[in-house]
């Protein structure tokens, strides 16, 4: 079969022949891949910068996708650490890590939306007990995961969503998605009285925003939960010690490990339903898998989805 194959950490995938998959486990199933998204997680696992990267080569990247099983049913599947991902004509899934989809869905749209949508959806459902009427600040709202977080926070009943990002040209788009206010990182002080921060950037921007937010709070004893989800601005952040003393701040993470696979899978059906019914908007563009070498490093406001 054809697949995208990675042979080293510093080289993009190359399209070529790869051995046909074989189901070996009790719950394994060989499936046909219809669409697989190019996510930040996919790139990071492939180049070794994500903490879950195995560093084993050769390998086929791809952490999830829309597939067709042997009975002709459509599924959205999440793959565990494996050397055979979804950037291939066929792959092997653990059927327990998949959910059935309606035959009427758009595979490209589902493949584009599920991974970035899962980031904030799972954080708000499984890492905290988010209450309707809460106020949310999203750091990194101009990315695909951040823009979906605006919609998801509103869906979960947020009374106010403040979207922070660098790309001011996208602010009107974020407002159209439901953001009540759009700000740059250096304006974080205006979000002082939020209840939850969904942080997709970390690094210096997060650390720089933390103290202005905390010291400007009307009631510093009111709890603020800072959920670290992504690290687009850097893997470490110089959090000032004052931030931990000046207010009632709780910092926690949401991702592989802090949330169990069972909890991730439990949230997938409702998220897939929301995407299918059009309640969550995402920009997606289908790209032939054969063009992966050219598309691998592309920076785009659209989520690229590979189709074999």
- Quaternary arrangement of the chains shown? single chain
Estimated radius of gyration: 20 Å
How many H/I helices?
Answer: 8
Structural class: alpha/beta
The end-to-end span amounts to 10 Å
- The geometry reads as globular
- Could you tell me the number of beta strands? 15
Helix-strand string: EEEHEEEEHEHEHEEHEHEHEHE
Major β-sheet profile: 7 strands, mixed
Low-confidence segments: none
Roughly what is the average pLDDT, rounded to an integer?
93
Strand residue percentage: 15-25%
Helix coverage percent: 25-40%
Lay out the secondary structure:
Blueprint: E1 2-5, E2 14-17, E3 28-37, H1 40-47, E4 64-68, E5 74-78, E6 90-94, E7 98-101, H2 107-127, E8 135-139, H3 144-155, E9 160-164, H4 171-176, E10 181-183, E11 196-199, H5 203-215, E12 224-228, H6 241-246, E13 249-253, H7 261-276, E14 284-288, H8 292-295, E15 303-307
Parallel strand pairs: 8-9, 8-11, 9-10, 11-12, 12-13, 14-15
Antiparallel strand pairs: 1-2, 3-4, 3-6, 3-15, 4-5, 5-7
């Amino acid at each position: 079969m054809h697949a995208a194959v990675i042979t080293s950490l510093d080289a993009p995938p190359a399209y070529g022949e790869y051995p046909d998959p074989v189901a070996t486990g009790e719950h394994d199933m060989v499936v046909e891949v219809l669409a697989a998204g190019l996510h930040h997680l996919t790139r990071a696992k492939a180049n070794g910068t994500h903490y879950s990267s195995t560093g084993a080569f050769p390998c086929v990247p791809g952490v999830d996708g829309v597939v067709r099983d042997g009975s002709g049913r459509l599924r959205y599947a999440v793959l565990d650490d494996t050397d055979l991902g979804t950037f291939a004509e066929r792959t092997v899934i653990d059927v327990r890590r998949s959910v059935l989809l309606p035959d009427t869905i758009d595979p490209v749209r589902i493949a584009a939306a599920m991974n970035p949508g899962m980031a904030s959806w799972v954080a708000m459902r499984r890492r905290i007990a988010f209450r309707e009427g809460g106020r949310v600040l999203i750091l990194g709202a101009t990315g695909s995961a951040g823009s979906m977080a605006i919609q998801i926070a509103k869906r979960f009943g947020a009374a106010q969503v403040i979207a922070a990002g660098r790309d001011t040209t996208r602010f009107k788009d974020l407002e159209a998605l439901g953001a009540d206010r759009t700000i740059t990182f250096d304006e974080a002080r205006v979000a002082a009285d939020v209840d939850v921060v969904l942080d997709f950037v970390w690094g210096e921007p997060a650390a720089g925003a933390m103290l202005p937010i905390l010291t400007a709070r009307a009631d510093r004893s009111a709890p603020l939960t800072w959920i670290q989800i992504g690290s687009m601005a850097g893997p470490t952040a110089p959090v000032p010690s004052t931030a931990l003393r000046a207010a009632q701040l709780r910092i926690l993470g949401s991702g592989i490990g802090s949330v169990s696979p069972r909890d991730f899978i439990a949230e997938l059906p409702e998220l897939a339903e929301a995407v299918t019914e059009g309640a969550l908007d995402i920009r997606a563009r289908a790209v032939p898998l054969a063009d992966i070498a050219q598309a691998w490093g592309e920076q785009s406001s659209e989520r690229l989805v590979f189709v074999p």
